[in-house]
Amino acid sequence: MKYSVLLVIIAFFLNINFVKAQSNKVVYFNTDTKLYEVDYFHDNGLISQTGFLDKEGKLHGEWLHFDETGKKITIAKFENGSKVGTWMHWNKECITEVTYDKSKILTVKEFPLTSSYALRKF
What is the pLDDT of residue 10? Predict the structure, then answer.
């Protein structure tokens, strides 16, 4: 009887993870950090975004965003849903560095991909 109940519980959790994967999103609760680890996927199966949510569902900590080829295109930081710190955005011509404080833009800087700064960030 105990084994039957255990198997039903395991099957239930496996089914939830399968459904989440089918919707291009996987969520895990990290008991150490007390945050939800979230991974979003492109239709081709490669990671699209990865980051953390707090218990209220607000973005928290570092988030990474990747294009459909797997190339990193954004590094972002959140604190309880607010944009904070320095964000980095890569595109074909430059790296854009945006500094936030409580979701307000403080500075915006652009660096050509050929600059020494941009080369260090890759």
Answer: 39
Q: Show the tokens assigned to 96.
A: 């854009």
Question: Total domain count for the chain?
Answer: 1
Q: Which helix (H) or strand (E) holds 38?
A: strand 35-41
Domain residue limits at 42: 25-121
Asked, for residue 66, whether it belongs to a domain, the answer is yes
Rounded Cα distance, 47 and 35, in Å: 19
Spatial contact of 77 and 94, defined as CB atoms under 8 Å apart: no
E strands present in 45-120: 47-53, 59-66, 72-79, 82-83, 85-90, 94-101, 104-112
The pTM of this model reads 0.72
- Asked if residue 6 belongs to a domain, the reply is no
Contacts of 30 (CB under 8 A, 6+ apart): 36, 37, 52
Evaluate whether residue 18 is within a structural domain.
no
Residue 16 lies in a domain: no
